[in-house]
Amino acid sequence: MSTTTNKPANKTTTASTGRVDVRKTYKLYIGGKFPRSESGRSYEVFSTGRSPKFLANAAQGSRKDARDAVVAARKAVSGWAGATAYNRGQVLYRVAEVMESRRSQFVTEVQAAEGLTAARAEANVSAAIDRWVWYAGWSDKFAQVLGGTNPVAGPFFNISAPEPTGVVAALAPQGSSLLGLVSVVAPIIVSGNTTVVLASQDRPVPAITLAEALATSDVAGGVVNLITGHTAEVAPWLASHRDVNAIDLTGAADVAGLSWGDLEVAAAENLKRVLRPAGSGATAVEPDFTAEPGLSRLESFLETKTVWHPKGT
Fold it and tell me: Do 2 and 43 form a contact (C-beta atoms < 8 A)?
């Protein structure tokens, strides 16, 4: 994989038609818009398999891009967290609808990105769409499951209620370019958090297409911000950023030149919530995203607020 500066998308000619293929030069997704990286850099993305083929150029995000994404995420917190749980569920379901309408594109891109058969890519995309629906259904139910009333000695109600923690940075899985990405993003935003996501370094194309789906659904600008680039370059800045309240380190597993333990240390500077990769140390791995997710990821990015209220006579 090579780095380029302001390089146009590669072009190939299809012999049967004589026309030139139009290859994309992808951009970032920040604040509901698609800006170029402020660094002006891009890098080539290739398919996975015995004979890798050029797919597109992706923007190579920088520290400044990460900072801009955090600003956009912070601005979106109040509106998104202030929306009703039912409304957030509707929005997540709308994302599933938009993805369904672009199913064939997602299947093609996941197949190329992960080197899967058409059937396996189809199953992967179906699972990703279903994952949005699954979390959408929990939007107005998780508070009852994760919260509750507490027994106290006195004439009071003592109520614990889960609330969003704020801005959550997430390192998307390196291997599972779509299902893993959705499995990381959906539980973060369903409760009212906003997020800055660093996409899979070598498999970013499905992530950018997901960003396009988000932009044409009802997800407000800034709720999800997506950066493509080199994980080892951008991740430390997200981990140490003092306006980031939590970080998901799932995608730090198997990244050359990056220690998720170092990221955890950096995150401790402002007491971020940290979700570690599966496994530990050098044996850290990506989890099995095909399994039913449960509520553990959603719960990882919630704060519990306890309220006391006097009982009436």
Answer: yes
Of all residues in the chain, what percent carry a pLDDT higher than 70?
93
More confident residue, 309 or 78: 78
Q: Report how far Cα 276 is from the mean position of its chain's Cα atoms.
A: 15
CB atoms within 10 A of CB 21: 12
Report the pLDDT value the prediction gives residue 14, as an integer from 0 to 100: 54
**For residue 242, which phi and psi values (nearest 5 degrees)?**
-80, -5
- For residues 185 and 195, what is the distance between their CA atoms, to the nearest angstrom? 8
Q: How far apart are CA 198 and CA 170, in angstroms?
A: 6
| HSE-CB for 48 with a 13 A CA cutoff | 20
Q: Helical H runs in 47-175?
A: 63-82, 85-101, 103-114, 118-138, 142-146
Asked whether the CA dihedral 14, 19, 25, 31 is positive or negative, the reply is: negative
| C-alpha triplet 177, 68, 231: angle, nearest 5° | 35
Rounded to whole angstroms, how far apart are CA atoms 166 and 246?
A: 8
Per-residue pLDDT reduced to its tens digit, 45-91? 999 988 899 999 999 999 999 999 999 999 999 999 999 999 999 99
Give Rg (Cα) of the chain.
20
Over residues 275-295, the mean pLDDT reads 83
CB 234 within 8 A of CB 78: no
Question: Do 93 and 133 form a contact (C-beta atoms < 8 A)?
Answer: yes
Residue 120 CB-density burial (10 A; 0-12 exposed, 13-18 middle, 19+ buried): middle
